[in-house]
Amino acid sequence: QTGESRLVTRSDITVHDFDWSPDGREFILAAADTPLVDDSFMRVKLMRVSADGGEPRLFVRTEGKLTHPRWSPDGRWIAWLGATSIDDPYAGSVFVVPSAGGTPENLLAGYEGTAVWLGWLPGAPSTIVFTSIERQSNAMYTIALPERRRERLLDQPIIYGSAPSFSRDGRQMAMAANTPQHPNEIFFGATGTRSLTRLTTFNPQLADVRLGEQEVVRWKSVDGWEIEGVLVKPVGYQPGRRYPLVVQPHGGPEAADLNGWLGTYSRWGQMLAGRGFAVFYPNYRGSIGRGVAFAKADHRDLMGREFEDILSGIDHLIQIGLADPDRVGIGGGSYGGYTSAWAATFASHRFKAAVVWMGITNWYSMTGTSDIFWENSTVHWNTIMYENFALYWERSPIAHIAKAQTPTLLIHGAADQRVPIGQSQELYTALKWKGVPVEFVTYPREGHGVAEKAHQLDFMTRVIGWFEKYLK
Q1: Which CATH number does the domain housing residue 456 bear?
Q2: CA geometry: angle at 312 spanning 311 and 316, to 5°?
Q3: Are residues 358 and 234 located together in one domain of the fold?
Q4: Considering the chain, what percentage of its residues have pLDDT values greater than 70?
């Protein structure tokens, strides 16, 4: 009312998220003791502080990742998204505790999906609503308290592009969503009808654009696990004809590629499909969307079984007559860049071209220079490099440079702190020494990604050119 702001929390904690109590008297905070990125992943705790200011009080401390605390409208509960253990790679379970205090309860124990957003349903004071990833799709559920009754709220083949927004009485909802045929549009409908109506057409020009057909594919990996992914077929696909294949593994690895719009600067599916390529997005073990056990299945085995999942997926596409085994390329960013660097060295005989975008190439130098050193060590390796040098080196692409023969395009942001640019510099130097065709592109001002539009256009042009040069 005064138009003035005032400091509520002390400056020696870093608040990552918060919510106001329904009576307006206090806040629930997700906070860490330092501003370090590693601490924002691994050392967040729930604290409470008076809206008038004062000393924050510890409310809940859990092992592992934690985010998104939300107070129920009736004031009785506090819910959040959290990990189930210190090495659970994603804060993908819904936890709840009475606001008066108590033992936190995981409401999604055994759930074979991954929660990604939560809130409280307006008009239902003790009903949680959350969205999740289930394999290659999204889902939305409610959980009524105190009964813990879970019901599906939305059952529609759309990929969520935003959190849902509900009317004040909770009877109507809207959200952004996409499909394989279009990027995000606004969808609207009555809550509980399980289906929403598309309201907008932001890109009418797509009606005149031929797109590649998309489908979910499934195959057996080398040890019998069923693995899934998304395949984008070339525009004008003809059954029985073999096509050049580009594999685009996702980052993370705690992520997943969904069967939605794959036409962005960082998702090359439709861009390459329009130029005659098949594009394959494997959700290898370590991906989210299939429960905690699946997400943890690659721990201490980076580029082990997870990479075999990818190779067996390529073999499946060859066996069904779609992919040309002599024209297979790979490209991805971050952990997908690591996978691509591994493919271009350790498994170079399988790949005719690679794009390594901000990828890890040497775990020795990555450790201690990345802003998520502790998260990598604790969650994914389950051991610190200083106690296990051999494992870290064995799973470094640079350790297998003697096998390298794949033409490789390296792309990196000059200001990347997640995967420092030295990772690309090391592989570039090694490939030049080996006599392997290699180009190295850096973008000024860019961090872990490509944000500037001119850089994105240049990035896409180079990716297309590299695969057309070496796979056609």
Answers
A1: 3.40.50.1820
A2: 120
A3: yes
A4: 100
